[in-house]
Design a protein that fits this description.
mainly alpha
Length: 113
């Protein structure tokens, strides 16, 4: 939690979690990078929109469940799941569906007499 500045004054609206600060920073950088796509033409209105969106995203991030997981491990797990073979692995090799095989013989069943 981040609740005070180094000189001891309390942050407005705080305390904040590290998740909130990360989400706010990510949303701010995305909004700044895509400003040409959504800009109204007025810098003042654009700053109000950015401020509202960043505040809303940080407020929503406060509701996320917190855990003590390392974010790097979470990202690595998500990438592992995304890049894994669709059918899984068996003994370290990707599982493949067997190809079609042609069966020989006649379509009638043979009777043994």
């Amino acid at each position: 939690m981040i609740g005070r500045l180094p000189e001891g004054t309390r942050l407005w609206g705080g305390p904040y979690t590290f998740t909130q600060l990360g989400v706010a920073g990510a949303v701010l950088s995305i909004a700044a990078a895509t400003r040409a796509a959504w800009s109204t033409g007025s810098i003042v209105i654009d700053l109000l929109i950015i401020t509202g969106v960043v505040w809303g995203a940080a407020f929503a991030a406060r509701m996320l469940p917190t855990s003590r997981l390392n974010p790097g491990i979470v990202v690595l797990s998500a990438l592992t799941c995304a890049l894994a073979p669709r059918l899984g692995t068996y003994r370290g090799r990707p599982v493949r569906r067997p190809g079609r095989s042609l069966l020989g013989g006649s379509p009638r069943a043979r009777r043994s007499t």
